[in-house]
Design a protein that fits this description.
This protein is an alpha+beta fold and 228 residues long. It has a domain at 28-152: Pathogenesis-related Protein p14a (3-Layer(aba) Sandwich). The chain is built from eight helices and eight strands, in the order ααβαβαββαββααββα. A four-stranded mixed beta sheet has the order 1-5-6-2. A two-stranded antiparallel sheet has the order 3-4. A two-stranded antiparallel sheet has the order 7-8. Helix 2 runs parallel beside helix 4. The protein is elongated, with a radius of gyration of 24 Å. Residues 3-22 and 224-228 have low confidence and may be disordered. Residues 1-24 form the signal peptide. Pfam families: CAP. Keywords: Disulfide bond, Pathogenesis-related protein, Plant defense, Signal. InterPro entries: Allrgn_V5/Tpx1_CS, CAP_dom, CAP_sf, CRISP-related.
Length: 228
């Protein structure tokens, strides 16, 4: 074999090695490995790869290539961006690095620090994962991971419940929210049963609460349309 052929072969092998090294940091197995290692450390079961979530994450990453801004498309999503050879594995490691900022006892971030990327990574109920990676026009990499079920709504509800512990007043934090309180051993199940008991006050024919009666909690539970 001539020197030219040997040189060409070595060059091809080097290119393949570099390509493999890069791809090895961005495969589904890489995303899953870092996630599941972090979950195992706190006694949470592993997630599996979901092609539909991955497609959604990739499409959103592609859509942000123009500005590379970390703007969420919805709940149940972790985002990251970085220059150079910023990989999917590096993005997940960045989210996991927030662990010291999370207080398990209070389910709160410590001292105003960020920790919600980490809580999404280890959220017990999240069992499916899909991620995508796109190169931005400025040369940086945009990485998105989607989770199902997501931790967003549950985490938000717990945080708001914690914030109302001082006065226990039933003040809504926003729309599409049911609240309840009472003494004794008041459980989550009992709260939902209380809301469902308002079914008798709802008129499906008019999509209205009976005169002077409350039914909004029930309509929220079942997704019925209410006009008042």
């Amino acid at each position: 074999m001539g020197l030219f052929n040997i040189s060409l072969l070595l060059t091809c092998l080097m290119v393949l090695a570099i390509f493999h090294s890069c791809e090895a940091q961005n495969s589904p197995q890489d995303y899953l490995a870092v996630h599941n290692d972090a979950r195992a450390q706190v006694g949470v079961g592993p997630m599996s790869w979901d092609a539909n979530l991955a497609s959604r994450a990739q499409n959103y990453a592609n859509s942000r290539a123009g500005d590379c801004n970390l703007i969420h498309s919805g709940a149940g999503e972790n985002l990251a961006k970085g220059g150079g050879d910023f990989t999917g594995r590096a993005a997940v490691q960045l989210w996991v690095s927030e662990r010291p900022s999370y207080n398990y006892a209070t389910n709160q971030c410590v001292g105003g620090k960020k920790c919600r990327h980490y809580t999404q990574v280890v959220w017990r109920n999240s069992v499916r994962l899909g991620c995508g990676r796109a190169r931005c026009n400025n040369g940086w990499w945009f990485i998105s991971c989607n989770y199902d079920p997501d931790a967003g709504l549950a985490s938000r509800a717990q945080n708001y419940a914690n914030s109302r512990a001082g006065n226990c007043n039933l003040i809504h934090s926003g729309a599409w929210e049911n609240l309840a309180k009472t003494g004794g051993n008041f459980t989550g199940r009992a709260a939902v049963q209380l809301w469902v008991s308002k079914k008798l006050n709802y008129n499906y024919g008019t999509h209205q609460c009976a005169s002077g009666q409350m039914c909004g909690h029930y309509t929220q539970v079942v997704g019925a349309t209410q006009s008042d």
